[in-house]
Amino acid sequence: MNITIYDVAREANVSMATVSRVVNGNPNVKPTTRKKVLEVIDKLGYRPNAVARGLASKKTTTVGVIIPDISNTLFAELARGIEDIATMYKYNIILSNSDQNMDKELHLLNTMLGKQVDGIVFMGGNIVEEHVAEFEKSPVPIVLAGSIEKSETIPSVNINYEQAAFDATTAFIEKGHKDIAIVIGPLLEPINQEKKLVGYKRALEAAEIPFKEELVIEGDYTYDSGIESFERLLEADPQPTAIYAGSDEMALGIIHGAVDKGYSVPGDFQVISSDSTRLALMVRPQLTSVIQPLYDIGAVAMRLLTKYMNKEEVTDHIVVLPHRIEERDSTK
C-alpha cells in the first residue's frame, strides 16, 4: 500500500501542512514536532511523491539527457560528467539513447518534455533545422554537449574541432609526413564536414602539401569501420604514412587492421586519434590523441543548464574548452 502524506499526518496527529514543512526542510516547525513527524515517516516508510511535489512547485528537479549511444565510451564519459554535476545540484537524470536517428531524437525530446523535466542536455551528430525549431519551442532550457549547431543560437559546450584537426595534422607534418590520411566520421555531420575536414585541409595548405581526395575516408566512428578504412587506404596511391582518426574506436580498428596485415604502428604507419577516451590507453601501442576533455564537456554543459534553469546570469552561451595533443606510442 502506498503511504501518503495524509497517513503520516494522521499517525503523527499533525496537519498535512506540518508534514509538508518537515519534508521540505522548512525551519518553522518546533523541534519536538519535527522529531515526531520524522519518526512517523521512518516508521511508515513514507516517500514523498516527486510528481505531486513537482506539480505544486512547477519543478521536478529532473533533467533529461538524450545521448546517441551510452555503450560508446565517448558518450559514456560525457554522461558521467553530466550526472556528477546533476547530483551536486540535486537533480535527477532521465537518460535515453537516440541511436543518432532524427525521428527518435525528436520523439525523445517531446517525451522528456511530457515528463515535465526542468531542462535537457542533448547530444547528436547532425543537428538540423528541425531540431533547432523544436529546441526553440521548448518550454525548458536545452544545452548541447559535444554537438555542433550551425547558427550557434542554442547553448553548447565543445572544443574547437577545426583547430584540433589542424593541430593533429600539423603534428604529422612536423614529423616529416606528406601523405597524411584522415579517417573521419559521417560527412553529413557538421563536426566532420565543416570542422575536422576543414582543419585538416588548412594544415595541408599551410604546409603547401597538395590535398588528395583518396586520403579522406568516411567512417562511422566504429572499430569495424576503422579496419575497413585501413584496407581502403592500402589501395590509395600513394599510401599514407600517417593517419588521423576521427574516433578512438576507429583508431583501434586502424591499428589492428595494420597489424593483421603484417604492418607495424608506428613503424609503417603513425596514428593520432581525436578523443582520448580510456580506449587510447588500453590499446598497444597506446594512442597519441587529441585530448578532448569529455568529462568536462558533460560537466560544464550540465552546469550551464543549471544556470538557465535557475535563471542565473549567463555571460556566454557558447562555451569552447581547451584541447591539446598527448604524445604516446602510436607516433614517434
From TrEMBL:
InterPro entries: CcpA, HTH_LacI, LacI/GalR-like_sensor, Lambda_DNA-bd_dom_sf, Peripla_BP_I. Keywords: Activator, DNA-binding, Repressor, Transcription, Transcription regulation. Gene3D superfamilies: 3.40.50.2300, lambda repressor-like DNA-binding domains. It comes from the Bacteria. CDD domains: HTH_LacI (cd01392), PBP1_CcpA (cd06298). Pfam families: LacI, Peripla_BP_3. Residues 3-57 form the HTH lacI-type domain. PROSITE patterns: HTH_LACI_1 (PS00356), HTH_LACI_2 (PS50932). The keyword Chaperone does not apply. NCBIfam families: ccpA. Global transcriptional regulator of carbon catabolite repression (CCR) and carbon catabolite activation (CCA), which ensures optimal energy usage under diverse conditions. This is Catabolite control protein A. It comes from Cytobacillus purgationiresistens.
